[in-house]
Amino acid sequence: MLLFMLHRxxxxxxxxxxxxxxxxxxxxxxxxxxxxxxxxxxxxxLPFMTHKQTMIIAAVFELAVAWRVWSVASLMQRSATLxxxxxxxxxxxxxxxxxxxxxxxxxxxxxxxLFQLSSPQLxxxxxxxxxxxxxxxxxGLVSSVGVxxxxxxxxx
Length: 156
Fold this sequence. Notes:
This protein is mostly helical and about 160 residues long. It is built from five helices and no strands.
């Protein structure tokens, strides 16, 4: 019984992640449409792209992941998609640190400016969001496996 309750909780949390990804994706698109000289500079990790191009691709990617997670019924698939997303974003963020990038984090789009967050606050917030999404997705994956295991034991 507890396992099925946890399954529902993690199902709800993965849908909350959809809302978060949708908001940050839109925030990136709003940020790209603003006048910001930083967006015209070259991305330190992807030197063949400007920050504006990187932000557009990231926003479309986030919105596509949000749509995928929203449209799939299986908690296991939703969780796996979210973990995949978090892995890609984490690798990008670690890559920025490896290249000694000094530009402020733009992962939250215009949200950072709205709340007047400093670069360290933006960095911490972004990592906290990634950890939260990863924890929700990992919990969803584990509970899905547990529910499938319980159902298979009961069935035969």
